[in-house]
Write a structure and sequence with these properties.
21% strand; 8-stranded mixed β-sheet; alpha/beta; globular; 37% helix
Length: 440
């Protein structure tokens, strides 16, 4: 008999009735022994996620705006007391919320505040299932620089082996300063992966509101095909480029242990879903492309300089300009006399873009420098692409026929992805054109 770890996302914890549905899924399989949960998400269009309300509370508390804080916190209070009523159990929500409110106002910190949605949701799920609640601070550890500490996995194994079954809150752990620290948004997926690694699960099930990983965003292409299986590497590429079914970093804890992930739909539990494995067994003859994903709002800073290739340290000097500002780059396409930095627009606000351009000019004296703002990056991903002649030709033919101008091309060294830069406005049309070429 194996051990399965289930992680339920925000939509699967949105209200008491959905929580009861999630509990039935857990109880339907005796191998589902450990459950990780997110904070309650949206119940309907226009609703607000509990985590967003908690971040708002933190800001209002820091500003000393007690009237606004009380108004926002009452929304959180009403949300959890409603869940308590819907599940039909006395869960002590009032007392727990009173204590959380007091701690926030006493300066417990932004991460503590943001983590309380998961904390309370896990308390509720543990009570519904009648199993132990184990706080994530007992084993999830962060280094001083905010990265996950390696001792987390040994601690998880040591702590969780004491429980036959348990519910654990996702999204947070304990920082190097001994205070609650959160992952980046969506980090509950990483928490589930940590638990799966700690107990050496046979399967990590990630329960959400979609029936698996689609070949592209269903908001762009109507009813795209569901991918039955993909590799960790393919998932990483697609998630990073905007396919938000699973956090892109969630694969790392399970990958080394060879634990497969299954994406499942809480609202359609009998659907097969998508399996994420070390190496896909999918027949690439069926389709050389696994999926297409895109992200908007990037800037390309392009340089031209004769004999750039013979100038020792040229690229290092350029990268030092953004490095000292804490700016990371997404891609670095280059030629013998050219190179481009592709950077998320978020890093270049409030005059930073001009500062970067001016310093590059001063430092390396390029012959020409161009800036192209508001670019979308679209990635076409698949292990089969490297083994099939003509894949690139088909892709660019499809874009040409759709009248889409390609600003930039970058192909990974693994030859399992081709990334094109297009105007933001062309992102959806670009994804549609590539999907239609390879899937229709």
């Amino acid at each position: 008999m194996g051990i399965k770890v289930c992680k339920f996302g925000g939509t699967s914890m949105a209200d008491g009735n959905v929580i009861l549905t999630a509990a039935k899924i857990v109880e339907a399989d005796s191998e589902r022994k450990y459950v990780v949960v997110s904070a309650p998400g949206k119940r309907f269009g226009g609703d607000i996620k509990v985590t967003d309300l908690l971040y708002k509370c933190s800001d209002e508390a820091d500003e000393g705006n007690t009237v606004a804080f009380e108004e926002t916190f009452n929304k959180i209070r009403n949300r959890f007391t409603s869940i308590e009523a819907e599940v039909g159990k006395a869960l002590g929500m009032k007392e727990a919320l009173d204590e959380i409110e007091k701690s926030i106002l006493q300066g417990a910190g932004r991460d503590y505040c943001a983590s309380r949605g998961e904390y309370l949701a896990a308390k509720i799920m543990a009570a519904v299932l009648g199993v132990a609640f184990v706080d994530a601070t007992e084993f999830v550890r962060f280094n001083a620089d905010g990265t996950l500490c390696e001792e987390t996995f040994d601690l998880a194994a040591k702590v969780l082996k004491q429980y036959d079954r348990a519910v654990i809150p996702g999204f947070y752990g304990l920082g190097a300063d001994g205070k609650v620290k959160t992952f980046s948004r969506g980090g509950g997926d990483i928490s589930g992966s940590i638990v799966a690694r700690g107990v050496m699960a046979s399967l990590y099930e990630n329960w959400t509101d979609v029936s698996g990983f689609y070949a592209c965003d269903p908001r762009i292409v109507n009813s795209p095909k569901c991918i039955p299986e993909l590799s960790y590497h393919e998932l990483r590429e697609l998630s990073y480029m905007g396919a938000n079914v699973l956090h892109s970093e969630a694969i790392f804890p399970v990958r080394n242990a060879g634990i497969p992930i299954r994406i499942c739909n809480t609202f359609r539990p009998t659907d097969e879903g998508t399996y994420i494995v070390k190496m896909s067994t999918r027949d690439i003859r069926d389709n050389v492309v696994t999926g297409i994903a895109g992200k908007k709002d990037f800037t390309a800073i392009s340089l031209e300089k004769s004999m750039m290739n013979s100038e020792v340290g040229f690229v290092g000097k350029v990268l030092s300009v953004i490095g000292k500002r804490g700016i990371s780059f997404e891609h670095l396409p280059s030629g013998i006399d050219t190179m481009s930095l592709v950077i998320d627009n978020e890093y270049l606000k409030n005059g930073v873009l001009q500062e970067v351009v001016d310093e590059i000019k001063t430092l390396v004296h390029p012959d020409k420098i161009y800036v192209h703002e508001n670019i979308a990056l679209v990635a076409t991903v698949g292990h089969g692409m490297a083994k099939n002649v003509g894949t690139s030709a088909r892709l660019f033919k499809a874009l040409s026929e759709a009248g889409i101008n390609v600003i930039m091309i970058d192909q990974g060294s693994s030859e399992m992805n081709i990334i094109v830069g297009v105007e933001n406005a062309d992102c959806g049309a670009c994804i549609s054109a590539i999907y239609n070429e390879f899937f229709n």
